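Q: Hi! First time doing this. I have a protein sequence and I read that you can turn it into a structure. Is that right? Here it is:
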Amino acid sequence: AERSRSSSSFTGSMEMQSAYADLGVGTSEFVGYNLTEQESTIAAILVHPSTDSGRAESVDHATQGQQVEVVISQSPFYAEGGGQLGDRGTISGPNGVVSVEDTQSPVAGLIIQRGAVTQGEISVGDPVTARVEAARRLDEAKIQRHEGYAGQISGRGTFSIAGRGYRGAALGLVARMDLTSALLSA
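A: Yes, that's right. Below is the predicted 3D structure, encoded as structure tokens:
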């Protein structure tokens, strides 16, 4: 049973990757290294059915209330990866707004912004402004940086605190607690 479950999960994953590759939109360029806002164009829209029974379908437009996955030609949204969460934000066009709740890259070179149409409607070809929720990205970067510092501290030799000798890993726990409390008070 376990083997069939994992193979069906793998098959589902392969079908999903194939569906994204079949969109025919090529790649979406990531421009978010130094930008949190970008003028772009909607290249593709996938709409999820109201039930969990079917997979998302490629459509030309989506309306308020629909759950969507949007591909834009140039994206400032960082896709989840390397331990970092995907960006959130908004995609605003002439007739509607998408609230982006997550960003993924299910196929190399393709950035998918997942969310819901919260106002009006969106259509393939619409010029849009993509805006990343900058505060969340900065908070995530700050956490990553501090976790990195704690990791560097924890791997170094033996240390003495209040006359007791500690190996690096034990100090790393102390450093993580100190850095975490510093983050929470910042």
